[in-house]
Amino acid sequence: MRVAVPARWARLLARRRRLISAVLLGLAVAGTLVSVRSPSGVPVLVASRDLPGGRLAASDLATIRLPPSALPDGYLAAGSPAAGKVLTAPARRGEVLTDARLLGGGLLAGSSPGLVATPVRVEDADAAGLVTSGDVIDVLAAYETHAETAAERVRVLTKAQSEEGGLLVLATTTGQATSLARAQAGARLSFAIHPR
After folding, report:
1. Is residue 90 part of a domain?
2. pLDDT of residue 57
3. pLDDT of residue 100
4. Considering only Cβ atoms within 10 Å of each terminal Cβ, which end of the chain, N or C, has fewer?
5. Helix (H) or strand (E) holding 193
6. Is residue 191 within 8 Å of residue 138, measured between CB atoms?
7. What is the mean pLDDT of each successive set of 10 residues along the chain, which is 196 residues long?
8. From CA 38, how far away is CA 27, in angstroms rounded?
9. What is the pLDDT of residue 64?
């Protein structure tokens, strides 16, 4: 079915066809550039690789864009100061980071009142590699004549490993911290990991 175009409009279109073509082409190019330059979605921070937990470096973070409907509560927007904070548990590459997965400004932010951060060195660096931030462990002390539990059900805040062993920072009560200091002075320390 053909649409009848008034003769006056047909003459006007015929005279201005180059100008109209140029305007339409310009609009198409502008639309393409806008869609390429302004990606849709909200920029959020994600893990740039599989992360074991512990203190985050800038290289551990990447930015992606997600539609608002796919954003979890408490997501970290791109530009959030996450580097230097402690990831409480392992994260997979591409996983959106949230405020619930990070300890706040200090190691004990979000912990129960009355807890202290207690560093404990275990001799077996391979064993220290088995735990991640957020794990709950019992610290065991092996003396020459006997073994005992130096601290029960303490949460791992962060860790560091070296050839000399592993340094675990634990959330403990002051009584547990005293018991651990006593055990470190005269025993070899190891641990047992509670199931999550």
Report:
1. yes
2. 86
3. 77
4. N
5. strand 188-193
6. yes
7. 63 69 73 60 91 84 90 86 80 87 67 84 85 90 93 88 78 93 92 90
8. 16
9. 92
Q: Name the strand (E) or helix (H) holding 54.
A: strand 54-55
Dihedral class, residue 134 (left if φ above 0, else alpha if ψ from -120 to 50, else beta) = left
Same domain, 151 and 128: yes
Residue 37 located in a structural domain? no
Q: Which domain holds residue 80?
A: 42-103
Residue 127 has a CB neighbour count (10 Å cut-off) of: 16
Q: Which residues contact 134 (CB under 8 A, 6 or more apart)?
A: 53, 88, 89, 155, 156, 196
Q: Is 142 exposed, middle or buried (0-12, 13-18, 19+ CB in 10 A)?
A: middle
Tell me: do 122 and 89 sit in the same domain: no
Residues 6+ apart with CB under 8 A from 87: 51, 53, 54, 55, 56, 60, 97, 101, 102, 133
Single-letter amino acid code for the residue at 132: T
